[in-house]
Structure formats: C-alpha cells, structure tokens
Design goal:
By secondary structure, this protein is α/β, with parallel strands linked by helices. It contains 22 helices and 30 strands.
C-alpha cells in the first residue's frame, strides 16, 4: 500500500523535471548484467504512466501537508457535496444517495453523538457495523467531530470483541441491530468501564444499550463548525483497523490522516477517474474496502456501489445493473467468479479495472479468458506496514513492480530467512544477509521519518516485535512484514508465503481473513479433553489460501470429545477461524527454544492415507467433529464436500 505513496511524496519534493524522470526510467530494470535492452524497455509505457500519475498525486499530498488548517479527506467529501450536491455517492440495494444527502445525514449523526455521547476531537468511537450506508454516515459524522473510528470486525465475539474495543481506548460503541446479541455478551464489562453503548435503531429493550436512530433524526442537518476538529493534523490518528497476529488476539493498527490520504490515492494511481463506478463487496472494516474502496471513491468524487457481502451469483448482474467500471477483489473473489456456471453474456459488462490482492496466476488467467480484457492491478501491502507494491502492468502473477527511485529514498530489503527457525539468517557480525536476485526471502522496510511504522494501539510488545534491528548495520531499524517475497530480474515482485503464527484463511464468510493460530489454540484448549494445541494452515487442492488445522494432545486418560470440541470452536471463534481438521498426537514436536514446530505438519496436510494419527473433520451439518476417513478426504479434494 505504501510504494506509490512514497514515490508520490518524493517526486513532489524533488519537483521532478522531465530529464530526471527520463533518467529514472532508464535505470528501471537495470542492475543486472543479463538484462537485455528489450527487457529494460518492455514496460516503458507502464512505467511512464505510473510515475507520472504518482508525481501529480505526490504534488497534491505535499500541498495538503502545508495547508492550514489541515485539509483532510473529509474536507474533500464536503467540497464535493457543495460543488456537486446531486452527484450519486452510494448505491445500495436499489437506493441511491447523493453526496449532499450523505453530508446531511452525517451532520445529524455528528450532532447526536456530540450532544448525547459528549464526543469531541481526539476521542475514539468503535463501529460494530456491517456493510450498509449507515456505516458511511456514522464514520463521516465522527470525522466531523475530529474523532478516530475503530472499525470492528462484525464476525468477532466475546473475548476478542472486548479486547478489540478496549485496546483502542474508545469511549463509545456504536452497533447495528443485527449485532445486538454479540454486544449483550460483553455489555456488563463495557458498562463497568463506563462505556456508552448505542444501537442504530429506534428502540432497544436491553438496559444499558441506548437506541440512537431517533436521536439522530431529531437533530438538525446544518453543517457543523470546522473548528470542532481544528486540532486534527495530518499526523493525527484517523482510524484503528484490526489485523491478526501472534498474540492470538487482533491488533489495532494505527492509521493516521496521512495514511488515509495515501490509501485513497491507490485508485487514482491505477487510472480511475471521477466518471468511474466502483463495486465494494469487501467488508468496510478492512483496509481494502474502507481505505482503497470507499476513501478512494471520495478522493475521486465518484460513485460507489455497496454490497452487504460478496455473492458470486449476483456479482455480474449487479455490475450490469449499476454500470460498474471498477471492481475490488481478493484472490478468492476471482476464483468464486470463475467457478460460476458459464453464460453466453459473461463478457457483457462495463468493468475495465480490477484492484486487489491475492490473485493466483492460474485463476487470474482463467478470469481474463472468461470475462474479457479487464486490467488487473494486483497490490501488496499491510495496513500497518511501511512498504508495499503495485503491479501496474499486465504481468500475470506479480504482486508489484519496483523502481529505482522508490528503493533509493524508501529503502527495503529482501533478506535470507530460515523457515525452520522462523528467523532471519545472520552473518558472523550478527547482521542480516540480503537475498540474491530471484531468491525468496523476508521483506523488510526501513523505518524512517518518511516511511514510519505507527505500530499498534495499546500493544507496545507487538509493536516492538514488528521492528527488526541490526539489519544492514548495528542500530538500524526495519519493519518486519512477516512475508516471503521474490524479486525477479525484470524487477517484478512475487509473493511466496507468510511466516510466523498467522495464515491466510480462504473460507467462508469474508474471504481472505488472517487467522491468528494462538487464538484458535487457546479456544481449543478450553475443550475438556485437549491438553495442548498447535494450529496451522493447510492447503486444499483447487483453493486459494489455507484452511485451519490443529495438532492436539489429550488430557491424561481422556479421548477426543468430538461434541465438546465442536461446541468450543463454534461458540467462540468466527466461522473463518474454525479448524476444519484435528490431528491427535501423543506429543507435540518442539524446537530447541520450546516453540511448536509447524513446517512438517503443514507439509503432511490431512491425507489419512499418509498419516497414522487419528484425525477429525468439522462437519457443520451434523454439528460435531467426525473421524476423517479416506472417503471424506476424497470428497473434499474433489469439491463434493464444500468448505
């Protein structure tokens, strides 16, 4: 997410003249004696277009940094509402909302929250909402008060929900009526801390939860004075977006106002214009849906089509109905679309651009063959990260493309990494070793004033854990992405794998969720029969990402209790985090430093013909774990049993 932002800022600062831009393009693709002239200039037009758009956007960002008072993305929205009041902002389930209407609704929200919750600039409020227009107005209302918004994953429950709310220091929780039961589970703890809990409904019979809709409707929709947010600067926290990690609980990545602007530019750098229409079916609590999708639409002053959740069967129908020209995806999105029954009119649509991440090369190719000449802009980045890439060419399979300017001023490295020990390889001086061109290694980005790492709210331990020191020299500091990448001789970047205690889940509700294995292990060990649990992700034939599996040991003189284990994982884990396969072992293999080994377990997978340990499968229809037989394994591999 950061590569284009870094390039933008730098080009603006240098006021890049054409001669310098030409020199930089000549350098692009160089550095390898084996590189031919044709290879170096093969992507000349793409490189020129990307760097030119980045230069213009960088000039804008540099200008916004100097403006007083600070000019935020909210100001961009308000400006559009004034200049183009009738322009359609959001389309949702057959209803169209203009920029002016969204502005008025958010004014009411802001006034209600100011009057009844006492929110003011610098405060934080948590949003526990699904994909719906009220999410958008509520966030805009908070922004008009100068408040930060914590975007809670609506799949989380109980302990995780309480943790996510607490770590951002929010004073208020705002939830949708559909999530009332989940709020009630943690309500006593929230009220004990003096948290105000609101429900976006006209009425609520639960003591301690205040219905907010009627209060919003009673407020005037007149604009709020801008001095309410006068203290907000480009370095102020705008959002908390949650990402899974090795703690076993989600971490609240701090997203500044500067990063909001940076992320909103992704659509522009990919060539999106104000005349485009973007289709958002990814959850708004994710950086992809919120920052790239919604904020990108505001920055481009365009129309967004909002969907509650992804539906492969309704996707193309929606796109035709609303004249969608830009779609968002993750790898599973493309695969699900390619798995739909073929139709004669499947190339009959207006989509020209797809922006996202996780597209597997074979699925990418199949997608283009089936649905036409759609320009795919594959991204690599992390919400909290300080390094990222964009594949602004049509090179299938690459997650990005590097350029000389970016690396010079925003240093990053691909370093050698020991997968078994799960740590960087160091030389005799204790410094890291850079991977050779074409060699897979760990991506790390230098932490500087220009490319900072803001860290995680309320979690200094995990913030420190993402910082890697003594990389090239003693005392330097880099952001550890936790991802293995490879850069080829043509400067294309390829994602290889994720390391550590998180794997990318591909199933089933919101595809592409990160799963913290230690959180799943903690829940499994609440089952009366389980002593220890080692959780990891395994690949399933024909699917992108990984699905959860756990190797467990049992309490002395106890057998695996299928019913109790099922009850624990279903009651306390979101659907995408539940381990579908359980492997019972006599003991868990540990490293010399007592860390659980996962590599061999991941490689062995869940094939009962190769594994002698007892294994069990999560049968959602029978609502229990069942013995994993070869028949079940064959049905899963053939796609007969849907995961």
């Amino acid at each position: 997410m950061y590569m284009w932002w870094c390039s933008c800022s730098l080009l603006a600062a240098l006021a890049v003249p054409p001669a310098l831009l030409l020199l930089l393009l000549l350098l692009q693709g160089g550095g390898s004696s084996g590189s031919s002239v044709s290879a170096r200039f093969r992507y000349w037009r793409d490189d020129c277009g990307y760097m030119w758009r980045s230069a213009k956007l960088g000039a804008r960002l540099a200008l916004y940094k100097r403006w007083r008072p600070f000019y935020s993305l909210l100001d961009r929205f308000s400006e559009t509402a004034r200049r183009h009041p009738a322009r359609t902002f959001v389309r949702f389930e057959g209803r169209a909302y203009s920029y002016a209407e969204a502005d008025r609704r958010s004014n009411r929200v802001a006034r209600a929250l100011r009057r009844h919750a006492g929110l003011e600039a610098g405060d934080a409020a948590a949003l526990f909402l699904g994909n719906e227009p009220q999410f958008v107005w509520t966030w805009l209302g908070l922004a008009k008060l100068g408040c930060a918004a914590a975007l809670l994953n609506f799949n989380i429950r109980s302990r995780s929900l309480l943790h996510c709310f607490s770590c951002c220091g929010a004073k208020v929780l705002i939830a949708s009526p559909e999530l009332k039961e989940a709020v009630e589970e943690v309500l006593p703890a929230l009220l004990e801390k003096g948290i105000a809990v609101y429900l976006l409904s006209d009425a609520c019979g639960t003591e301690g939860i205040v219905p907010l809709s009627e209060k919003i409707d009673q407020e005037t929709d007149e604009p709020l004075p801008s001095d309410l947010r006068a203290s907000v600067t480009i370095k102020s926290t705008a959002l908390y977006i949650y990402t899974s990690g090795t703690t076993g609980l989600p971490k609240a990545a701090v997203v500044t106002q500067e990063k909001v602007w940076a992320a909103s530019f992704i659509q522009a750098v990919c060539g999106v214009t104000c005349d485009d229409v973007v289709y958002i079916n990814l959850p708004l609590y994710h950086s992809a849906g919120f920052l790239i999708g919604m904020c990108g639409a505001i920055e481009r002053r365009m129309t967004l089509v909002l969907k509650r959740k992804f539906s492969a069967s309704q996707f193309w129908e929606d796109c035709r109905k609303y004249d969608v020209t830009v779609m968002q995806y993750i790898g599973e999105t493309m695969r699900y679309l390619c798995n739909t029954p073929r139709k004669e009119n499947e190339k009959d649509h207006s989509i020209k651009l797809a922006i996202g991440n996780g597209a597997r090369a074979d699925v990418w190719t199949d997608f283009l063959n089936r649905f036409g000449d759609i320009k795919v802009r594959e991204l690599y980045g992390a919400t909290e990260g300080n390094i990222g890439f964009i594949n602004y060419t049509s090179k299938i399979g690459a997650v990005g493309r590097v350029n000389a300017l970016h690396r010079k001023f925003f240093p990053y490295l691909v370093i050698k990494f020991d997968i078994e020990k799960e740590e960087p390889v160091r030389n005799s001086e204790g410094l890291c070793i850079e991977a050779a061109k074409g060699e897979t290694g760990l991506l790390v980005g230098a932490i500087t004033k220009i490319s900072p790492f803001a860290g995680y709210a309320g979690n200094q331990q995990q913030t420190d854990k993402k910082r890697l020191s003594d990389v090239l020299k003693k005392g330097d500091l880099y952001f550890n992405t936790g991802d293995l990448l490879r850069i080829d001789r043509e400067n294309f970047v390829y994602f290889q794998d994720r390391v550590g205690d998180t794997f990318r889940q591909a199933w089933p509700t919101w595809k592409g969720e990160n799963v913290a294995t230690s959180e799943v292990g903690d829940i499994l060990m609440t089952a009366d029969c389980v002593s220890e649990a080692n959780v990891y992700g395994v690949k399933v034939e024909g699917h992108e990402g990984r699905i959860g599996m756990a190797a467990v040991t049992l309490q002395e003189e106890k057998e695996f209790d299928c019913s109790d284990a099922y009850k624990q994982v279903v009651n306390y884990l979101p659907s995408y985090a539940r381990p579908y396969f359980i492997r019972v072992q006599n003991c868990l293999e540990l490293t010399g430093t007592f860390k659980m080994k996962k590599v061999r377990l991941v490689e062995e997978g869940f094939d009962p013909s190769l594994i002698t340990d007892p294994m069990y499968f999560l049968d959602l229809q029978r609502k229990t774990y069942v013995p994993l037989t070869e028949d079940i394994y064959t049905s899963i591999s053939a796609g007969t049993i849907k995961l």
